[in-house]
From TrEMBL:
CDD domains: VOC. Residues 5-125 form the VOC domain. InterPro entries: Glyas_Bleomycin-R_OHBP_Dase, Glyoxalase_6, VOC_core. This is VOC family protein. It comes from Saccharopolyspora halophila.
Length: 126
């Protein structure tokens, strides 16, 4: 049996470098310039995992979450020690807080949008 390994997780967006810089601030990761061009930017995982990549899509339409008009195709969950820490890190990086689902008001996660409108969660999960 062949062993498979995730090569990258790619996110479509209109401006790859701008979105990579946002996630770099959020996660503390650096852009891998050797794997980057105008249409593809990679953030290197300092722990050695698969990179987070950003791919230019000139026709990109942001998700309309929580509405399903333009559904989210994916979202990232970022683990933090506390929700307060996650909130601070997300806003400092340039995220926008999104409405918490009404059935999840006491959940150990909060929902944000990156500068291109992709939802992501800051999770205080152990």
């Amino acid at each position: 049996m062949t062993s498979l390994k995730l090569a990258a997780f790619a996110i479509d967006c209109p401006e790859p470098r701008r979105l990579a810089e946002f996630y770099g601030r959020l996660l503390g990761w650096e852009i891998d310039e050797a794997e980057t061009d105008d249409d593809w930017v990679e953030l290197a995982d300092p722990a050695g995992g698969a990179p987070l990549a950003f791919q230019r899509d000139p026709g990109y339409r942001p998700p309309s979450w929580p509405s399903r008009d333009v559904p989210q195709m994916m979202h990232l969950d970022v683990r933090v020690t506390t929700l307060d820490e996650g909130h601070r890190r997300a806003l400092e990086a340039g995220a926008t807080q999104l409405p918490q689902p009404t059935d999840q008001q006491d959940a150990k996660f909060r929902v944000y949008a990156d500068p291109d409108g992709h939802p992501f969660c800051m999770c205080a999960c152990q």
